[in-house]
């Protein structure tokens, strides 16, 4: 199934997915919490990495979306395997470092680990934010192409902070979409997979699109699905997503990882890559190589 040509293609798509996530994060952070009409009034169509926003970021600076994903990647690479304790420990060290931003549900779960060693938050009907979905990419890369490993890793990392069936459903669907896109599936197949999610959880229905892009994981995924399936290339998918406003760094990060996995590195505008934090991109390159080299895709049966 995975010959050398496919492996090189997967490596390219994986790099594009992680870099695309960081770009979506940095691009969207500028317009986070703005409405689409406010963005249009100020920028027309917003499409440049300029920093600023409510967090007053430097151009190309990333936020908690990319930083938490890197926490997971570092834990896997350092431990040469999956260790939930290592992931939680990296989250804790990150929180102690006073990051530029951290969502309330993530903060609550990480503090429970710090105070009580808790690795799984109790089920909570209100913990259906997008904080577990935004950071899952390393778990998807490390488990590729094993669906059972994907489910284990994605849900374990999610439930450190978010233990909610809607969050779980979004995370599993996104992880599976990433696996399919990384392995070259067409958009029609990805769309059918999302249709299956909507059948099981009708709340995720995104046609007609309601235009909501809040931190609620349903709104987040509806926005990502709408613009990813509507877009014709990486830039169109991502620009449409972040111009929706709302939780734009996270919708941008998730759309960036999915569109990157689908379109590959050639699709990512060079002007965006050049604007990114050089150290972040360099670490992403190293992490992708380590995550893939240890994944089942590199040792097919």
Write the layout of secondary structure elements.
Elements: H1 4-29, H2 36-43, H3 64-79, H4 84-96, H5 104-116, H6 137-143, H7 147-159, H8 165-182, H9 187-200, H10 217-230, H11 234-242, H12 248-263, H13 270-275, H14 278-293
Helix pairs in contact: 1-12, 1-14, 3-4, 3-6, 3-14, 4-5, 6-7, 6-8, 7-8, 8-9, 8-12, 10-11, 10-12, 11-12
For the biggest sheet, the summary is:
none
Let me know the average pLDDT. 96
| Count of alpha and pi helical runs | 14
Which fold name is given in CATH as the topology? Answer: ADP-ribosylglycohydrolase fold
Q: SSE order in H/E notation?
A: HHHHHHHHHHHHHH
Strand content: under 5%
As a percent range, the share of helical residues equals 55-70%
**Mind telling me the CATH class?**
Mainly Alpha
Shape: globular
Low-confidence stretches: none
Q: In whole angstroms, how far apart are the ends? A: 10 Å
Number of self-contained structural domains: 1
Q: Considering the protein shown, what is the CATH homologous superfamily?
A: ADP-ribosylation/Crystallin J1
For the record, the CATH architecture stands as Orthogonal Bundle
Q: How would you classify the helix and strand content by structural class?
A: mainly alpha
**DSSP summary, beta strand count:** 0
Radius of gyration over alpha carbons? 17 Å
């Amino acid at each position: 199934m995975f010959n050398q040509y496919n492996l090189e293609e997967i490596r390219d798509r994986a790099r594009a997915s992680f870099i695309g996530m960081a770009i979506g994060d940095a691009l969207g952070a500028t317009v986070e919490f703005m409405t689409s009409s406010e963005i249009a009034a100020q920028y027309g169509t917003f499409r440049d990495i300029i920093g600023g926003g409510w967090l007053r970021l430097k151009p190309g600076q990333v936020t908690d979306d990319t930083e938490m994903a890197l926490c997971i990647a570092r834990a896997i690479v350092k431990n040469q395997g999956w260790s939930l304790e290592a992931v939680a420990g990296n989250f804790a060290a990150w929180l102690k470092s006073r990051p530029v931003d951290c969502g309330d549900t993530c903060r609550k779960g990480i503090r429970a680990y710090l105070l009580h060693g808790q690795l799984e938050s109790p089920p909570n009907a209100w913990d259906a934010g997008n904080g577990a979905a935004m950071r899952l990419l390393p778990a998807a890369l490390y488990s590729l192409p094993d669906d059972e490993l994907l489910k284990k890793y994605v849900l374990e990392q999610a439930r450190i902070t978010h233990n909610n069936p809607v969050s779980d459903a979004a995370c599993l669907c996104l992880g599976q979409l990433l696996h399919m896109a990384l392995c070259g599936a067409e958009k029609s197949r990805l769309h059918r997979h999302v249709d299956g999610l909507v059948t099981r959880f009708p709340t995720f229905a995104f046609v007609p699109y309601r235009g909501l892009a809040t931190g609620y994981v349903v709104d987040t995924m509806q926005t990502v699905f709408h613009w990813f399936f509507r877009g014709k290339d990486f830039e169109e998918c991502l620009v449409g997503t972040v111009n929706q406003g709302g939780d734009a760094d996270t919708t941008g990060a998730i759309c960036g990882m999915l569109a990157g996995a689908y379109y590959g590195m050639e699709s990512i505008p060079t002007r965006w890559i050049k604007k990114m934090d050089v150290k972040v991109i360099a670490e992403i390159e190293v992490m992708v190589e380590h995550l893939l080299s240890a994944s089942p895709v590199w040792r097919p049966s």
